[in-house]
Amino acid sequence: MAAIGNVGYNYLGASGLKVSNICLGTMTFGTCKGSFPVFECNTQLDEKQSHEVLDKYVQLGGNFVDTANVYSKGKSEEIIGSWLQKQERDRIIIATKCRAQMDASDQNSCGLSRRHIVQSVEESMFRLKTNYIDLFQAHAWDNGTPIEETMRTFDDLVRCGKIRYYGFSNVCGWQLQKIVEFAKYNRINQPISLQQQYSLLCRQSEWEEFMVCKNEGLGVLSWGALKSGFLSGKFKRGEKPSKTQSRVGFYNADENVAKQVGLAVVWSDYNENDAYWNLIDKMGKIAAAHGKSIPQVAIRWLLQQDVVASVIIGATSIKQLEDNMGASAGWELSKEEMSALDAASPRMSYYPYDFLWRLNGPDRYNQFNRSIKL
């Protein structure tokens, strides 16, 4: 990992593109009433606040900004676009996504059809005020569209220069392998990244999706690093988070809203969970030993996973941004600390994954085979 100042840089998958190992996620930019609870939270930032966060992020050494057309129904992209006009465009790596329904009155304004992808690219470029997108991503798998149609559309967009690279997000193992194989055997441009939820509280993708990434040279962009705040260390057992001071509190003011969000952010699921509080305690002790914060430990654990190219962090204040960026470079968790966090992190054993991992332990590791290192 190379570093500029106190920020680390990695290649994004098998491509020649270098990105800062902390990516600024912009789901907190802009508000949109009546769409999805995430975009109505009172911690959402207006344009001025968003620009201040973007300015500070670049000042700290970051070069990688992630958004999506669905974030506040296009307002996030618009905010980035007005900021981008004041920047040296070629120095900023812009990633966005498509898949979600953008117009409830138009049945074709969703999915991964050629029609919707091309329309989404054009609309995103307009909102972002740019004539190309560095990384364009499918936000999730689409059962309604043949993968051949989706893949050939991405390849065409790369060939004509409207997007530089493409990737996928929120897919399972067989889907990702199918994506890679189609690109490989049809000799088209290959995806370079997988954006997937990954944290000390969400490790399911280690079983299969990340094995595909290692075998096939895709870089992981991990989202949900702090699990909507559950890995921030700021909550106390038995004290329900405040509605006005955190996303978790906002969601859980009405538990039905928390369930609708669908990201495992229901307070009652954690409040009486001894394993969760043990993990937070372990993180607190490790943080104190390094003179760091609990969120920095959560992010650093991700950065030391060799499949991760960049960790996507959201920020609702300059202070929060600076703290999160402090995980980027200049210090490391020891092998013993990584092992302690692994042991404390709740993990479920699923057949056949647990069975296969036992059979393929360290004695079956071949350094010349690009497979997961146990």
TrEMBL record:
Residues 21-344 form the NADP-dependent oxidoreductase domain. Keywords: Oxidoreductase. One of its GO terms (molecular function) is oxidoreductase activity. GO terms for cellular component: cytosol. CDD domains: AKR_AKR9C1 (cd19081). Belongs to the aldo/keto reductase family. Aldo/keto reductase 2 subfamily. This is NADP-dependent oxidoreductase domain-containing protein. It comes from Sinanodonta woodiana (Chinese pond mussel).
